[in-house]
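User: Structure please.
Assistant: Input sequence and predicted structure:
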Amino acid sequence: MLCLEFKVYLPAEYTKILYLHIMTNELEVKELERVVVRFSGDSGDGMQLAGNIFSTVSATIGNGISTFPDYPADIRAPQGSLNGVSGYQVHIGESEVLTPGDYCDVLVSMNAAALKTQYKYAKPQATIIIDTDSFGPKDLKKAEFKSEDYLGELGIDSDRVVACPVTQMVKDCLKDSGMDNKAVLKCRNMFAVGIVCWLFNRDVQLAADFLRKKFAKKPQVAENNIKVVQAGYDYGHNTHASVPATYRIESKNKVKGRYMDITGNKATAYGLIAAAERAGLRLFLGSYPITPATDILHELAKHKSLGVTTVQCEDEISGAASAVGASFAGALAATSTSGPGICLKSEVINLAVIDELPLVIIDVQRGGPSTGLPTKSEQTDLLQALYGRNGESPMPVIAATSLLTVSMRHIWPAKLPSNISRPLFF
């Protein structure tokens, strides 16, 4: 890369020196070991899908990833409000990544409220991508900005901001698609995916493959979204998007094999299935739907062919009671819930203790007391798991440290209750 630098001294009333860089070749590509990207916008802006696509693309080329979906517990807050912001953070590394990261290196904010609420999660030197069409006077008022200088209010250096009229460019891109305005606006997240793919030198064909698979029954929807992803990529490539360089996270030690996208709940389900198979027992799960534990019930319900029996009960108490009955009948029994459900199950858990019945109680923790925050996770139930029963009845409590330990060590948590004739918390 050849970079010519000129110093232009402005009139006396200005104290700033303007640097003009004339690029005669492509932007410099910098190698990084790891990076954290955070997508944010309204609950209806598709940030979860955008983050999922970028995560999948990164994993496909061999990067280690860890993700953290962050969406509000509100049913649906007013559009553009501070309470309605949804986020998705992904930590990408050249090798194994164990956490979603703390502060992000790149923040995508699709509206003013997203920028105001999510900027606190960005590093001081982070690159910020915004949709300038969503920073009008009404948008700023909803986000409770005091002036139109929203960057100044937050103390953001404008040189770190990629300001792009995403909404208008998406409308122009899809003007001949036959889609109505509402459907067109739903594609704004794909433009952001395209820009981020360009910024990190990702192959947009991988994103296209993901979309064609996701919308296999709606091929025209897939093609329209792919068109917008390409438009976002081209925008970054053609304008250099106000950034000094693009980046690459290259995995140096790639291991051939079959990979899958997995969550803690799915790993838990697979671990239970493996434990039952090794023990030569039928697996029984008695559960009542509760966020964020319901996915375990959903996943196990798909595997009846593997000897799995699932029962969706009318309440938490009956979910635990049915599992106690299945354990008494000789099955490998489990019940899944979150903190509020543990409170309700405590009497039945004590029944399993006094009857000396093996039982796996899965607590997928959510934040806060009482009914808590359904969409927020927190390590908040340890004391309840240790002591939350009458009669001071002791129980083992096991916690996983990674997705691998969730899946593989479930074999041991499922085996241990049988050895000690006692329920166990996981």
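The radius of gyration is 25 Å.
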